[in-house]
Amino acid sequence: MRARSMRHFRATLAIGSALLLAGTPVGAASPQVAAKPVKWSPAAAVDLAAFNKDLVAGKPTMDVAIYVPSNFDPAFNKLSLDRMVDGVRSAKEIYGRVGVQINLVSAKTGAIDPRFLAIQSNEIPRLPDTEYLNSYEASQRYPTAMTDMAKAAFESIVEPARDNARTIYLVALQDVIYPFLELSQGRNWTVKMVRTGGLSFPSYSYHTTIPQRLRGVITITNLSTPNRLRRTIAHELGHKVMNVSHEYKTTGPAFEVFAEGGLMLYGAGEDIPAGVDGRWHLERLLMSPYIYKLDARGKKLWNPDYKEGGHYYDPIYGEKSVKFPGRTSMDPNW
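The structure corresponding to this sequence follows.
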């Protein structure tokens, strides 16, 4: 009996190891069971006409929609519909300084499938960055893979529309967990997971793994402090519309960079710099496929779309990108 139990344990362990190596969490249902579309209702408390009253035809504009579940768990208090709108209002001010408008196209509430109040954003990466490629090149070669769970959630949340692929959707959730690889010692990496306050699912990282109509999704889970309320939505919009990581002038892109100055760093900065010294942030913003101008007849004239899925070096940017060397803190004598 003991020998048979040991054989059963080894077989179970082998199956579990194979599932983990294949990128499938042990015990997870695959594929993810689809959910019914959410029945959204316009939020009566949000006056879209008043919010958008200062929009000017002919200026660069991005369309933003807000989705806030009405069935958050009772203990959740990190954000609200009012805070989401206030966050967009702050972003409107920040982007307005560089001549870009935010058009709030909708703000809706509704009960979502409770399974999706908390999601894992992407599969556990299989390959860490090494010194041979910079992080953008590594993401171009090995894009981050969105989980089936995240896809199922957003398929049920985002309403079908003609401009799905050009609209930015701010989706309020309770928890969005992001797994990543971190160098631990020598040539060893550790899988870690971070609880995100906002996640932009940026094209420079996920470019080929997100369905077109869902590529504008940004999740927001925490607007509970003044700094988060002021900057989180503007910062996450920056990942989406500038298509850059955490970087600023002489600060190279990294998973987390705590410093002051730029909107794309973790801090209090709000600057969107221009030119080669500013890593072309403003220029990339103005070239974004999420940006349009209204012509005299009220028709949206969109910027050209990505040619290669939207990786950092997508041809639409021309020379408006930075070629920097790969780097690692790995022991060179491994």
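The helical segments are 2-21, 48-51, 81-96, 135-141, 148-157, 203-206, 226-241, 281-286.
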